[in-house]
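Per-record layout

source: Leucopsar rothschildi
name: PXMP4 protein
length: 213
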Amino acid sequence: MAGAGDSIRALLRAANALLQQRRYRAALAVIKGFRNGAVYGAKIRAPHALVMTFLFKSGSLREKLKSIAQATYAHSRNLAYFVFTYKGLLAAQSRLQGKKIPFHTFLAACIGGWLVFGDNNPINSQIIMYLLSRILFGLSRLAVEKGYIPQPKQDPFPLVAALVWGTVLWLFEYHRETLQPSLQSSMTYLYEDSEVWHDLSDFLIYNKRTDSK
């Protein structure tokens, strides 16, 4: 038993020594990036899938849990693959050119995005839309910072909020099919289901009655 413990401790010391080797840093960063992508993807998707599934989807408990597990796995896997691909390509470009330049980041991420997130499915669609909204905000701030557009005299956020909500509700009412399914479900719950009730039970307690009254 003591021999096994000594072997484990020796293995841990060897692993820790390897992690300190600077020449392996790029490769080790790729591996840890894969790990962090998988963990972060699961942390983000699991609670979201749990809420959306139990709020909007029908079916047995087993089917709901299976749906949550599948969505969590898909998000976790895709993010892990993307980080692995991105960091690997970044390290390869830097090694080939002897230094890191901004275009390396763009190219590596483009290739990773194409390979990992190119499939048009609900999980990838949500991730891309999440990023797109933040990109637009980021580019707007960058344009002001670089002087491409003048600094607004007043905070433009109230106007942005008004236009976003006006546009999305117009699309929901008149071109619903253009919106993502989960957004359609959320808006149906908020703006249409709130117009239907039969008695106090489905007015305050439940959204919809489950009996046959």
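summary: The CA atoms of residues 86 and 108 lie 5 Å apart. The chain has three domains: 19-118, 120-151, 154-198.
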